[in-house]
Amino acid sequence: MNPDHIVSALAARRPKVLVLGDVILDRWCEGEADRLCREGPVPVLDIERTVDAPGGAANTAANLAALGAEVVLIGVAGDDEPGEALSSCLSGAGVGAGDGAGGLVRRPGKTTSVKARMLAQEHLLLRVDSCRPADEDEAREVADRALAVLDTADAVVVCDYGLGALAALDRVALRRGARALVVDARHFAGWTSLGADVATPNAEEAAALLGEPSPRGDRREWAAARSRELEAATGAKHTLVTLDTDGTILLGRSGSPHTTSARPAPEQNAVGAGDTFVAGLAYALAVGLPIEVAADVGQAAADVVVETRGTTACSGERLAVALSGGPVRSVSALDTARAGARRARAEGRAVVLTNGVFDGLHRGHTAFLEEASRLGGLLVVGVNSDESARRLHGVAPEMAEDDRAAVVAALASVDHALIFDSETAVPLIEVLEPDVYVKGGDYLPEMLAEASAVEAVGGRLEMLGYVERGLAQPVDERAER
User: What CATH number belongs to 334-480?
Assistant: First the structure.
């Protein structure tokens, strides 16, 4: 299918997707570890920054919303601080998480499942999981809420991480009411009788279904050789085995299997990429695309998010570029960014704007932009032209404006990067009318020429904190240089 036709089909309408399952808060605790603990030979991590993101079924929902779907997420969280953090993350991503037909079931005295990663200067030291199973009352409420909205959804995604949120689900009613049903489960044996449209086991899960050890060597060849056994074991119309760095293989009931190839990426960047794949797959099925094309869409979405460390989402704009075979990001014209902002608002997503010179991009820049992107659903970055940078700092940047903008645009956290020629971002604010304008935390709001412009368009000013690179540097230096 022609990539332009795929992009057009994905953009033609906004599907409604119901996501059911186990939600998790992904938490990243970052800092310095330059000394050992007296109690034992382990490093002491002085936490300087904590970043939260939706995980598990919540990450699948956030990715669907970023792609442009109307999302109903139903799962179990707690009435605690992580639950509030997860709810805030979902709201920022355009996913409703409150009470009502959809949303998170949050009971007093209950805790939220958290996967916390401890990092020192970007190196993972430890992951701490504090996950708890849903109780019977919570599972029944999930089931009741699911059935109340089932017939309104274009597609349903089941995300079973083994935490019990789906234990009371009426599977007969689910199968009868779901138009397109995707199952992503840690233990697929419990879902065989459902008769899903698509099952998405990874290689280890697929091997477990057959009572075999994890395959070694060519995993595609292994899956293709066991096609009939795996199809019977999943009970699904289509079985799509995900192979992380090796892409995926769609086991066909007739003809040759359909395969996809993954973009190489560091292992630490792959957190949540499987959720993104399922989101892209489900979105494509919800708009009526064939299963083979849906697999390609899911792979393209996953390729986008592995460009950045951490749990991130793939936007519709990034997906369109990836499907077109170009670089994951490209420098935008102002009109393109303005059109993207309008689409984002129509889809209920907030528009975030920041700006700077970005000369010699380093991890301080990327951390700043990743944090800025989490404040809304679309991040636009203004990159000062060579001439405006010279006027600001008295010297020309080391990197030319086109190169600086291209490097910023290549970041997965950035939806649009554009070059502008003024000393302040006021002209960009007036045209783009951002919901949030972001600057470094060592500025006072009254020091910014942009403050009144942001207020005039009905937006708000957000001041971010500090993130260190080799030597301590404030956020404003990262953003301005």
Answer: 3.40.50.620
